[in-house]
Predict the 3D structure of the following.
Amino acid sequence: MKKTALVVGATGVSGRALIDYLDRQEDWSVIGVSRKPPYFETKARFVSVDLTDPKSCEEGLGGLSDVTHVFYTAYVDNKVIAETRVPNTRMFANFLPVIEKAAKNLQHVCLLQGTKYYGQYLGPFKTPAKETDPRISVPHFYYDQQDLLMAASEGKGWSWSAARPHVICGFALGNPLNLISTIAVYASLLREMGEPFTFPGKPGAFTSIYQATDADLLAKAMVWMSTAPQCANEAFNITNGDFFRYQHLWPAFARHFGLPAGGVETVDVPTRMQGTEKLWDAMVEKYGLQRHPLSLLVNWNFANYAFSNDWDVMSDTTKCRKFGFLDFVDSEQMFLDQFSALQREKIIP
């Protein structure tokens, strides 16, 4: 039976990966929801919706009667994490009742979360984090959205699931909160400036245990948990399945970009990279890169956040394996492959 996916937040890293994956499946048709049209080739039909506006949700989503599965990946950012709660909860609250009413054959809603569910962003936390760990006392929109989803599904003919990755690695134009493009552009600029590839974060972030999630792996996992009956009304940690320390990856990254590897040089990255827009524009001309301004590729405040985590970040992925998802990705190779992909696409030199 043909299934129809509604991918919300379709032009972000996770949304794009989901659409790419579903486009290759013969038994799926895909509808993407975003405010902007897609910047990549896809068979998906796109609907422009502003999730912050209830009227826009009603007009854009109210007629989507053929949707069977929802993948909700939409997110609005704020550099103050506490300030992300209200808008993201409101967007989901605007969206959910409209699509539930419209989709007469709705089967499943898969919600994208992350390790902030376990308080990872606040400091050292219980590791490895398990799906059964209690919520922390600090409010977060992950809790609000999941509560709305659970309440809405109660007694209905559809189920829900939640995916909890960490540092989703892929590429999405205009989504600069992206570890892959951040490292790649940072390295490219340092090389052009003739400087070594130093680690800009805290010394503890260089040596602590960390993890990541390949966007393609996450897409496959979200489709799995949305269609496997045993996954109904369950949350799953989804990571590559391995762990790493930046101190061991940094030399491999340096070799990839043809740079001498440096050690830790803790800096404020926005200050360090101030004024590099003109240098980047010159590099675009010099190397024949795609003409994208630096601001579409990186957010240096995100770099500060990404490299400041000086405590272990580990998720237990036993549950997803017990339930039947056995795929994994080598994280070091993932980084190198995605750097190469950015080079092939002429995003970076």
Remarks:
- Residues 85-102 form the longest helix (18 residues).
- The chain has a mean pLDDT of 97.
